[in-house]
Structure formats: C-alpha cells, structure tokens
C-alpha cells in the first residue's frame, strides 16, 4: 500500500489478520517519512493451518400467537436449528396466510434436502432484542409451499426459559413485504 503524506512520524498497523495468523515485530509501528522521501515498512505474517470454523447456534420450536395452529387462525409455528457455519434448517408456517386449496403458507430452508435453499449469513446478535447479545439474525433463502424460492431474514431473541412468553421471533421476506413477529407464546428459543 502506498499513501501520500507530509513529512513526519506515522503509526502504521496491519489489521484484519485472521486468528490463525501472527504478525512479526511491532504492530502498530512508527514509520518516519522524510521531506520529499518515502518511509517504507514491511510486515511479516505467518499462518498455521486453517482458521477455525465459526461457532454459535440457535435452536427453536414453538409458536407466536395463542390460537390453535389451524388454517385461518392467527398463529405462526416454527422449528429451526441454525449454526454459524451456515448449516441447519428452518420451517415456519403462518396459519393466517391461507393459500388456494386451504393450505397455510409455509417457508422451508433445508440445504441437505433441497439444495436450492441455503443459509447465507449468521449474525450472533440482533438489535431487535432488548439485549442484542441474546439474539441472532440469519439471512437465508427458502422454498415457499407454492414452490417459489425467496430470500428472508430471521431475527430471534432468547430472553427466558421455555414457555415463559419472553422469547421473540420475527421473519421478514423483503420481496413480498411480508413480516410476522411476536413474543413466543409457547415453545422456546435457545442461543448457544
């Protein structure tokens, strides 16, 4: 990297070094740039093996809404096991969103069973939670019961024990302007 600066002393550092790598020598270090000259420096980086896989997991099974999960009722059920290494599965059913034939809307992500679906990103916190560290956000693509593939974002909060009504669930499908969210009336969300 080259920077054009005035003469003087500058602190230069190498950032973004993976956890399985080390920088030899001082980092940051002082580089003196003389008037009309250059102040070169070199960083030596050595790495071992591969970077460890990301850790983190969130699981959940339960329901938003207190009505029975039957076609036409205001209830959303969910069942998921999602991991920071971008593996896992998700199924959500909205019983109030009834499709032709009386079928409730269902969204499923399971890359093992349906390779057209995928988990794209796993964020180990969520601003929708009163304590962001108790939340997780996941970006994914899933298959709707109609056969279409859509991108969506899942945001969940592990705010308390099972069936406490304190956990939070939200799913948003931007292309459809579809959002369903609320406190988990029954079931549990667990972040680990």
Describe the structure.
Strands 5-6-7-8-10-11-12-13 form an 8-stranded antiparallel β-barrel. It is built from no helices and 13 strands. By secondary structure, the chain is mainly β. It folds into 2 domains: 8-47, no CATH class; 57-191. The mean pLDDT is 93.
Question: How would you sum up this structure in a few lines?
Answer:
By secondary structure, the protein is mainly β. It has strands at residues 8-12, 21-24, 29-33, 44-47, 57-64, 76-83, 88-99, 103-109, 118-123, 135-144, 149-157, 168-173, 178-191.
Approximate helicity band: under 10%
Number of domains: 2
What does the average pLDDT come to?
Answer: 93
Helices and strands: which structural class?
mainly beta
The coarse silhouette is elongated
Main sheet overview: 8 strands, antiparallel, barrel
Q: What portion of the residues fall into strands of 2 or more residues?
A: over 45%
Biggest β-sheet: strands ordered side by side in the sheet: 5-6-7-8-10-11-12-13
Number of strands: 13
Poorly predicted regions are none
Order of helices and strands: EEEEEEEEEEEEE
> Termini distance?
40 Å
Determine Rg (CA atoms, Å).
24 Å
Q: What is the number of helices?
A: 0
